[in-house]
Amino acid sequence: MLHHPLDDALRELLPRLRRFAQWLTRDPTTADDLVQATLERALSRWSSRRPDASLRSWLFAILYRQFLDGRRRAQRHAWLLGRLRTEEEPQWPSAEREAVAHAMLQAFARLNPEQRSLLLWVTVEGLSYQEVAQILEVPIGTVMSRLSRARQALRRLGEGETTTPTLRVLR
Length: 171
Hints:
The protein folds into 2 domains: 1-87, Rna Polymerase Sigma Factor, Chain: A; 100-162, Winged helix-like DNA-binding domain superfamily/Winged helix DNA-binding domain (Arc Repressor Mutant, subunit A). It contains 8 helices and no strands. It has helices at 5-25, 28-44, 55-84, 95-98, 104-110, 113-124, 129-136, 140-158.
């Protein structure tokens, strides 16, 4: 049986991809499906990969885009189902939204996926700002400012603030 160096590289990255997918989806089964879909897409599009690009950042970019595409599909599906529904269902507040953030891990879980992604890539996975900029296809300055806002939001949530920060109005 032949052994390819790509197999070793992919095996080494699987736990990191799975951990990232679990933070995005918050469900182990869905995370496994997302990682599988990521690897399928990567292998089917291997010829389009830039040779100078990092395998790790390329796979994270694919996983993140797969996650966003899935969320968009789910939102469209929910919207269509909502239009078909004839009677109103009661909306119950979730326990997560009612609870106050007591620990930094809980605060981290309450960040939006984009902020969690940035913090995971930079602090846990050790990606450089440049690699994150390539994943998101934005300038490095945008990554730095988004990361700053994500850290600020995490600090606020860690201190128990539960209000949603107001958005700046650009003129």
